[in-house]
Design brief:
single chain, alpha/beta, 4-stranded antiparallel β-sheet, 431 residues, 7-stranded mixed β-sheet
Length: 431
């Protein structure tokens, strides 16, 4: 079935140079859409939206379209009204030929003050007694209902009879029963699935089968309309396959003429092969698998000259540089990353030989230790240690003289007077 995608929106926005952010009008009718999505985030400036003739079962993802004025959801599978409270500028809503039974859900449209036109023709609720009076009194902002103008006198009578009409409408809703929304999982998809799996079945769908399909009577329910839409898609698919049959896939060639295996990587996996060193005893293949894929969907085949892995019908085959033992290997898968590690012991590999030390090699020279002094053991003499008090007592003059000499500058003799020196008594002496 179809979905609303950015590519589809750009395709429908050719009149706006394929710019969807400033798109104000878009037509998405007859696209086999199951749900409304992406519009409230990609096309915030929409004013007119056509979604008629799809299989949409719920009004959603349009509440943020503040500028939306006209919404057409005719010929869909909608069973109740809602999800339009945020559409402040909505003026016209078309819900023709849907499956709305509970007309009381129209009360959610009271917040849409600008809503003037509402179409509910072809819904089960439109056949209820006093349906028109109930909707007119429920939505006083309407000026037209089902294409007929609402007169002033009609509105006054509807408001006067509202309390009497309301219980009658509720009883009719309970008697009819609200139709459930379509569950795609509960509907058989054999016609479509078989064509997808085996396109050759398209030739079996003849014109007589299509005529019989259009002539048979079906229930008027969302499920029946959904199944009818699926069959129509199957017929279109069959016609397309008959006009342009798919080309047969080329048969895989796995081995060369000499029996050597080809290297095949259909999934473009980023693998790593360790142990190609001739001295390594085994080859290790680190193969990336999808983290959340079940191990039962992975097929592994190890042969003496190649290894083959099949993941979702995509093949990986690698020719090994050395012959291995298939029955002695192991395969482990990481529980964190999902990667597959395949260990394949080699049939033959080289062993590293370490040559023994020759007997004629000279012994390393002995270490020489450096000694201080004359090499004799010097013992600490405690009898020569004296205290500072004893030194000051025995040599007081020497210590004081040393301190004085260290602080006193060298003595200098008197400098002779200059020849021009005059001794003037009036001049005080220099200190």
């Amino acid at each position: 079935m179809g979905r609303i995608t950015l590519d589809l929106l750009r395709k429908r926005a050719e009149h706006n140079n394929k710019e969807i952010s400033t798109l104000e009008e878009v037509s998405l009718h007859q696209e086999s859409l199951e749900r409304i999505e992406l519009l409230d985030s990609a096309c915030r400036e929409l004013k007119i939206l056509y979604l008629q003739n799809n299989i949409i079962s719920r009004i959603e993802h349009v509440g943020r379209l503040k500028n939306l004025r006209y919404l057409n959801l005719a010929l869909n599978n909608i069973v109740r009204i809602g999800g339009l409270t945020g559409c402040e500028a909505l003026e016209k809503l078309d819900l023709t030929v849907n499956f709305i039974v509970d007309v009381s859900t129209a009360a959610t449209l009271q917040a849409n003050r600008n809503l003037t036109e509402l179409y509910l023709t072809g819904n089960p609720c439109a056949s209820f007694k006093d349906y028109r009076k109930y909707v007119i009194s429920l939505l006083p902002q309407l000026t037209q209902l089902d294409g007929q103008a609402i007169t002033r006198s009609e509105r006054i009578l509807a408001l006067q009879d509202f309390e009497a009409v309301k219980p009658s409408i509720i009883k009719q809703i309970e008697a009819t029963g609200e139709l459930p929304e379509v569950d795609p999982q509960s509907i058989s998809q054999e016609a479509w699935a078989q064509l997808e799996q085996d396109p050759s079945l398209a030739a079996e769908i003849t014109d007589e089968m299509q005529q019989q399909f259009w002539q048979e009577e079906t229930d008027h329910t969302p499920q029946a309309r959904y199944e009818m839409q699926m069959k129509q898609e199957a017929f279109k698919r069959a016609e397309a396959l008959q006009r342009d049959p798919p080309k047969p896939k080329p048969q895989r060639r796995l081995f060369k003429d000499d029996g050597t295996a080809y290297n095949i990587n259909e999934g473009d996996w980023d693998f790593r092969l360790d142990g190609q060193d001739p001295y390594s005893p085994a080859l290790e293949l680190d193969f990336p698998c999808y983290k959340h894929m079940d191990t039962s969907q992975i097929e592994l085949d190890v042969q003496p000259t190649y290894v083959r892995i099949v993941v979702k019908d995509k093949m990986f085959q690698l020719s090994l540089p050395d012959e291995v033992h298939p029955d002695r290997g192991s395969a482990k898968r990481s529980q964190i990353t999902g990667r597959l590690l395949v260990t394949m012991p080699k049939v033959t590999f080289h062993t590293r030989v370490v040559p023994p030390q020759a007997a004629s090699d000279p012994e390393p020279p002995a270490l020489e230790r450096l000694e201080l002094g004359d090499g004799k053991t010097n013992k600490l003499r405690l009898d020569t240690i004296v205290t500072d008090a004893e030194v000051a007592k025995n040599q007081p003059k020497q210590m004081s003289r040393m301190l004085i000499d260290s602080t006193r500058s060298k003595p200098s003799g008197p400098r002779p007077n200059d020849p021009d020196f005059e001794d003037d008594d009036d001049v005080p002496p220099l200190m």
